[in-house]
Amino acid sequence: MALRVAGRDDARACCEANILCWRRAYAHIVSADYLSSMSVDERAPRFGDYLVDHAERSWVVEVDGQVVGFVSCGPSRDADEPGWGEVYAVYVHPDHWGHGHGRALMEQAERYLAERRLLPIRLWVFEANDASLAFYAQRGYRPDGGRKCLRIGDQELPVVRLILR
Question: What is the pLDDT of residues 90-135, one digit of tens each?
Fold first, then answer.
């Protein structure tokens, strides 16, 4: 396993990991129609912009030279706490779950945010995503009372904000 800063050339692999992760992890949350409509060919060009321009910093994790996941982070996008950090996204290809790649990506993002004094660190997660909630709880993240709904296709899905102090 190797971590490195993400670049535009990683867009397709990161997009694929993202979509496959959504299809597996969110199948009980997000409509099947929406999940099946997600296309790597359509989304990959925008993914390069996301990795390089939207996030302050993104990293990929490689296994045998293949990108299998990514994390993106930067200043909190929540207006109520300027100066805090946020993990915007962390996704690992489902075939590589359980091998410590997500943990390594989170450690990298947390280290980066701490070095920049963007503390505490927040992230948002689907309220019904028990597996992710358990993963983040093991890392010390706790709900801080923040809640909102995200429009995903034709659904309004509740998300909760977690914080690592």
Answer: 999 999 999 999 999 999 999 999 999 999 999 999 999 999 999 9
Residues 163 and 144 sit within 8 Å (Cβ to Cβ): yes
* 3-class secondary structure per residue, 18-83: HHHHHHHHCCCCCCHHHHHHCCHHHHHHHHHHHHHHHCCEEEEEEECCEEEEEEEEEECCCCCCCC
CATH of 2-120, one of 3.40.50.1970, 3.40.50.720, 3.40.630.30, 3.20.20.140: 3.40.630.30
Residue 164: HSE in the Cβ half-sphere, 13 Å Cα cutoff: 25
CA 69 to chain centre: 9
Distance in angstroms (rounded) separating the CA atoms of residues 111 and 8: 23
